[in-house]
């Protein structure tokens, strides 16, 4: 049963000349002052969400994006700051790019944020998908096997650091603690200071290709997929439930999952589609080259896979596959109830701020959603 509504903000600034025929992403260059608009947007969004009954503001970690699409390099720092200016809203990491961090530094930062915000941060982990940032920080991404191996060892260390009063770890990439003298003795274990005070730590990971689902299910990590076609969601949700069952966790379909949508509210679906079109198209001008189009063709092949469509997707494709919801509020209620029935364990819905949509337009959309959609799903017995 759906209980919570959140928003995903990847950190874009106001973008001019958006849409399929607008400015090419590689031609976008912004000043430092313009890029800092990200944090004004985040503050305005957090305050409105806090006042309107939303659950969590999810944000994305990225680096070096002079193009203005994803401009938040530290999610714990941002979430801790925003929590000081709000009352109830939670702040989620969607997602910390773990290969860019030493795992103990990431665990320390989150733990401090957990204490300072009274438990209002939600931890998230990801492997990364942009070579410019991952490889620049000295970690592998082109070599996917090496990236996965490093990431999984890092997550193992983070889980130990959160959950054990003292621990050691000796793996391929990390030797914790090193066998060195300290105050007259050889170190054999180490303690994270501080550790989170809100345990167990709730951890989320993205489901994009589906290759990490067994790993997250085995480790009790929750899964989020956003802007994915319905067939992709079916595959991810069923795979996660089955993998969790094999790991000894019996779940209802959709449990420990979050489902994200792009959206636009208008009097008719046709009007909503046309108003959304430039923002949808701007998104995929940026993301399609990374392979992040989670639609499928008639044969179930992921967009861009061998034999599947290679063109830039249209908003009609996303609406037809229920990755984007467009129409009046009652259509949103009907669509969400459809997914609620299909995935009875589903509790979390995430709305995506479409790249290119100006803040004032999103603000109006979220206000309508909070008044005309959310009340249909809260305070139910």
From TrEMBL:
Annotated Gene3D superfamilies: Luciferase-like domain
Residue ranges of every copy of the Luciferase-like domain listed in the record: 33-341
Chain segments annotated as coiled-coil in the UniProt record: none
CC annotations in GO: cytosol
Gene Ontology molecular function terms on file: monooxygenase activity; oxidoreductase activity, acting on paired donors, with incorporation or reduction of molecular oxygen
Keyword vocabulary terms for this entry: Monooxygenase, Oxidoreductase
Pfam families listed in its UniProt record: Bac_luciferase (PF00296)
PANTHER family xref list: BLR5498 PROTEIN, LUCIFERASE-LIKE MONOOXYGENASE
The protein's name: Luciferase-like domain-containing protein
Taxonomic placement: unclassified sequences, metagenomes, ecological metagenomes
